[in-house]
Amino acid sequence: MALSSVTRLPGGIGNMPVDHALADLREPFDGAYTTFFDDFVPYVAANYTVTAGGGAVAQVTGGAGGRITIINAAGAETAIQPAILPFDLSLAKDLFFSTRLMIDDATLSAFFVGLTAADTSPYVSSPTDGIFVKKTAGTVNPSATLRVGGVDIATGALGAMVAGQMYDVGFAYTPQDGALRAFAAGAVRLIPSTLPVSATPLSANISGFGAAARTLTVDYVAAYQGR
Q1: Which residues pair with 155 in a beta bridge?
Q2: CATH number listed for the domain at residues 33-226
Q3: 3-state DSSP assignment of residue 97
Q4: pTM confidence score
């Protein structure tokens, strides 16, 4: 027996205006956003700039879904950033970033995730431009930061995290209300007066850090910007 909860539209469904070449496309057109998405099925190291710092980035074998581990050496940072930087931010365009991750110690683990200019040590150095969520060792609460030209334009604290639990961490901006909302065990609302605009466009950046070796597990990373 067919599932009653499934909505069936045999004629198709579209999202393009009637005067567009794709108006009669029978499925939603997904080119409205510049998109980066990696579910790590599999993890392809050649697609990234990896700065191991004595640590390692590796595919998790077994378990549900593609995952990678970012393992840092004691007192060092292990960072991973896509080799291509496709996002040139604008207050007039939608922007979404999300990743799903798990820390191995609520207090001692430290991480950095977000969209930044090219930077091989984002946790330690703080990129000149970017929007990111950062958790420092010694606290259970990450914070969200909008940074432009080396200056923190807006910051906000997020909820407490525990070890061994997956969290969706990210942020969203829409020009309709001009608000930048960050998420990680809770949400915070920031009001940007500007967004990072640099000669080098931004891309996803993820890193792990700790005084001792720590393991950051990442399930996926995604970013979308309106065209």
Answers
A1: 145
A2: 2.60.120.200
A3: strand
A4: 0.90
